[in-house]
Design a protein that fits this description.
Length: about 150
């Protein structure tokens, strides 16, 4: 997996970029960075710090918010142990991808928001990716099949 990072805003794209950054609109701003997303040292034995940062994806089929149409509610929570949301240490945003293509960013404010959000997708098929950004500990990722 090739990881590309916008050097202006830190937005992550996978494999290739066509056009400006979809978050900050900067042109020609992506550089390959294999270290852009943190990964646990041992996925079978997560530390508490890793459990506080790795996103948890919960897919709720047919949530009912959009009547008579498919509406798949994709919840993301950070993390298995709830992350802090203080002014000093908080989750800045959660980015969503469908089949590794960026679809949306949700910004979170410290002290007001929980480290969690939801997106209502029309009829997604494939893999959902969530990348959360902690102001102190960088990017962490999780994926789930729909
Ligand atoms: Fe953190």
């Amino acid at each position: 997996m090739k990881t590309l990072e916008c050097k202006v805003c830190g937005h992550i794209e996978f494999e290739e970029v066509n056009g400006p950054c979809l978050v900050c609109r900067a042109e020609n701003a992506f550089v390959e960075n294999a270290e852009a997303i943190n990964s646990p040292a041992d996925p079978a034995a997560l530390t508490d710090a890793e459990k506080k940062h790795i996103p948890q994806i919960v897919i709720v089929k047919e949530c009912g918010l959009i009547p008579d149409e498919c509406c798949t509610d994709v919840h993301v929570r950070v993390g298995e142990i709830k992350h802090l949301m203080t002014k000093e240490h908080f989750i800045r945003y959660i980015d969503y991808y469908l089949n590794r293509k960026f679809i949306s960013r949700v910004w979170l404010s410290p002290e007001v928001c929980n480290p969690a959000c939801a997106l209502h997708l029309a009829d997604p098929k494939g893999t959902i990716t969530a990348i959360e950004n902690c102001n102190l500990h960088g990017n962490w990722m999780a994926e789930a099949k729909i």
